[in-house]
């Protein structure tokens, strides 16, 4: 009896487990060399010739054309890590890959997949307890937040800027959007612009959008601006059906022209008399209206994207109006300054200060598209981890020190676990060693010797991480060097890696339709 289609392929038992584990390990290996301050970059070229150069784990995995379903699960690990805490994507993927490698060894020793899954979940609970023990008792102040941001960006492409100088900008941006309710991370945006050194990167107290003024004669800058946001076409009204009008004389033509001019002037005068200094509309503006408004000193931006209009409304406190006759002064938003600025072929609108200052923009500059793209990724990750650290108030040592401490606690706890599950718990601890071993490899150190030294220092009561200071690599306390990570980044990495690895290990039958 044939149950499956003849075109279906089925892989069962050890073969299925081996195939899935191999795919997961391959994905982890693809990003492993990017980990740490000395991590390498990857160049990704798509079928259209588009090039991406980065060492951001989530970006690498998303840009890769991965088809294997088990491998895709590790991509989802990175995506989950990026969405929840903004950083640690490479760490999560590498840990997941090593959990799979350890599971493969256990399966070859005839340890059942269910036992491995139970052991891994128990070990993950111990790991979370160990992370809590590593949390710094010092307050998470601006200095610590700068260290968090700098640790996140170290080793990433930051152009001519140092991670230290960018960290100050990142912390200032996050502090700007903090209130009694917490950090409003969504109020911080990153806007990139090619054409200058990365040293020109700045924090704009407001928003930046890709829009140009409707008329060249309009003011380039308006102080203390009253802002109207419209969904209105400012021009001669047209019918919804095709129609022809017969004009029999010059007088009738003049009357039609005068009526049109009167309508256009009416729109212009209504806007000019409304008190709005700056107008953003999502529709077209007739050139005659924009010319009239330019003479009145009103700055107008037309064909504004709907998402930009929403951003302006949110930032300035304006009400979005759908009919010009409904526009009232109470609908206006406010900003200290609105300016239109040209950057080569691009025109940008800056809405700064006042109500708009509730949102901030990191305005990133760079000489090439690759530079600004990598800067945008690095700053975005730093903003996320600083926000996470500030919300939770918990940071732990980086540089592999937390993983060394967590693995040691798991090994100690494994001695009290009966049966074969003990093997899975111990293997979980061994899998965590991949982080310090990879850091050692990427800094040119011997991974085995480094791991032995790190364990010895930890067992001796020291906080031991692999510190890269210029060309020097030493084993020392990461807190002394400002190498710190949010505790939530470590927690999320272990939880998401465990979930992915256990899901893959439990699969013993793969049915694929062709």
Automatic annotation (TrEMBL):
<dbReference type="GO" id="GO:0005524">
    <property type="term" value="F:ATP binding"/>
</dbReference>
<dbReference type="InterPro" id="IPR027413">
    <property type="entry name" value="GROEL-like_equatorial_sf"/>
</dbReference>
<dbReference type="GO" id="GO:0140662">
    <property type="term" value="F:ATP-dependent protein folding chaperone"/>
</dbReference>
<dbReference type="GO" id="GO:0051082">
    <property type="term" value="F:unfolded protein binding"/>
</dbReference>
<dbReference type="GO" id="GO:0016887">
    <property type="term" value="F:ATP hydrolysis activity"/>
</dbReference>
<protein>
    <submittedName>
        <fullName>Chaperonin Cpn60/TCP-1</fullName>
    </submittedName>
</protein>
<dbReference type="InterPro" id="IPR017998">
    <property type="entry name" value="Chaperone_TCP-1"/>
</dbReference>
<dbReference type="Pfam" id="PF00118">
    <property type="entry name" value="Cpn60_TCP1"/>
</dbReference>
<dbReference type="InterPro" id="IPR053374">
    <property type="entry name" value="TCP-1_chaperonin"/>
</dbReference>
<feature type="region of interest" description="Disordered">
    <location>
        <begin position="1"/>
        <end position="20"/>
    </location>
</feature>
<comment type="similarity">
    <text>Belongs to the TCP-1 chaperonin family.</text>
</comment>
<dbReference type="InterPro" id="IPR027409">
    <property type="entry name" value="GroEL-like_apical_dom_sf"/>
</dbReference>
<keyword id="KW-0067">ATP-binding</keyword>
<dbReference type="InterPro" id="IPR054827">
    <property type="entry name" value="thermosome_alpha"/>
</dbReference>
<dbReference type="InterPro" id="IPR002194">
    <property type="entry name" value="Chaperonin_TCP-1_CS"/>
</dbReference>
<dbReference type="InterPro" id="IPR027410">
    <property type="entry name" value="TCP-1-like_intermed_sf"/>
</dbReference>
<dbReference type="InterPro" id="IPR002423">
    <property type="entry name" value="Cpn60/GroEL/TCP-1"/>
</dbReference>
<keyword id="KW-0143">Chaperone</keyword>
<keyword id="KW-0547">Nucleotide-binding</keyword>
């Amino acid at each position: 009896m044939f149950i499956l289609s003849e075109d279906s392929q089925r892989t069962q038992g050890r073969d299925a487990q081996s195939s899935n584990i191999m795919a997961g390990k391959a994905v982890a290996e693809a990003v492993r060399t990017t980990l740490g301050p000395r991590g390498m970059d990857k160049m990704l070229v798509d079928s259209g010739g588009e090039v991406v150069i980065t060492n951001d784990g989530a970006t690498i995995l998303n840009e890769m054309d991965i088809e294997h379903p088990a491998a895709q699960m590790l991509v989802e690990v990175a995506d989950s890590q990026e969405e929840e805490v903004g950083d640690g994507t490479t760490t999560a993927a590498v840990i997941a890959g090593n959990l799979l490698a350890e599971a493969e060894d256990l399966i070859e020793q005839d340890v059942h997949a269910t036992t491995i899954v139970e052991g891994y979940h128990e070990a993950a609970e111990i790991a979370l307890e160990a992370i809590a023990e590593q949390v710094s008792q010092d307050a998470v102040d601006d200095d610590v937040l700068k260290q968090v941001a700098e640790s996140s960006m170290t080793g990433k492409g930051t152009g001519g800027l140092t991670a230290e100088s960018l960290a100050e900008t990142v912390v200032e941006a996050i502090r700007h959007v903090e209130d009694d309710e917490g950090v409003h991370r969504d109020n911080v945006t990153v806007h990139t612009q090619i054409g200058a050194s990365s040293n020109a990167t700045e924090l704009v107290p407001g928003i930046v959008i890709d829009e140009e003024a409707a008329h060249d004669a309009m003011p380039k800058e308006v102080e203390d601006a009253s802002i109207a946001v419209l969904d209105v076409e400012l021009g001669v009204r047209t019918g919804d059906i095709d129609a022809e009008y017969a004009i029999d004389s010059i007088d009738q033509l003049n009357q039609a022209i005068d009526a049109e001019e009167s309508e256009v002037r009416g729109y212009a005068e209504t806007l000019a008399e409304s008190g709005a200094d700056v107008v953003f509309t999502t529709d077209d503006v007739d050139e005659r209206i924009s010319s009239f408004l330019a003479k009145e000193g009103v700055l107008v931006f037309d064909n504004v994207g709907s998402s930009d209009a929403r951003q302006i409304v949110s930032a300035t406190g304006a009400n979005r109006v759908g009919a010009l006759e409904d526009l009232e002064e109470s609908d206006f938003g406010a900003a200290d300054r609105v300016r239109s600025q040209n950057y080569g072929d691009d025109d940008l609108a800056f809405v700064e200060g006042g109500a708009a200052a509730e949102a901030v923009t990191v305005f990133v500059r760079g000489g090439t598209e690759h530079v600004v793209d990598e800067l945008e990724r690095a700053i975005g990750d730093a903003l996320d981890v600083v926000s996470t650290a500030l919300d939770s108030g918990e940071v732990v040592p980086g540089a592999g020190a937390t993983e060394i401490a967590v693995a040691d606690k798991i090994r100690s706890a494994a001695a009290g676990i009966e049966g074969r599950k003990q093997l899975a718990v111990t293997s979980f601890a061994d899998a965590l060693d991949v982080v310090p071993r990879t850091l050692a490899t990427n800094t040119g150190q011997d991974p085995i010797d480094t791991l032995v030294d790190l364990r010895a220092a930890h067992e001796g009561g020291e906080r031991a991480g692999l510190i890269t200071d210029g060309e020097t690599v030493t084993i020392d306390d990461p807190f002394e060097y400002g190498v710190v990570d949010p505790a939530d980044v470590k927690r999320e990495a272990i939880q998401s890696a465990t979930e992915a690895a256990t899901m893959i290990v439990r699969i013993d039958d793969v049915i694929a339709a062709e």
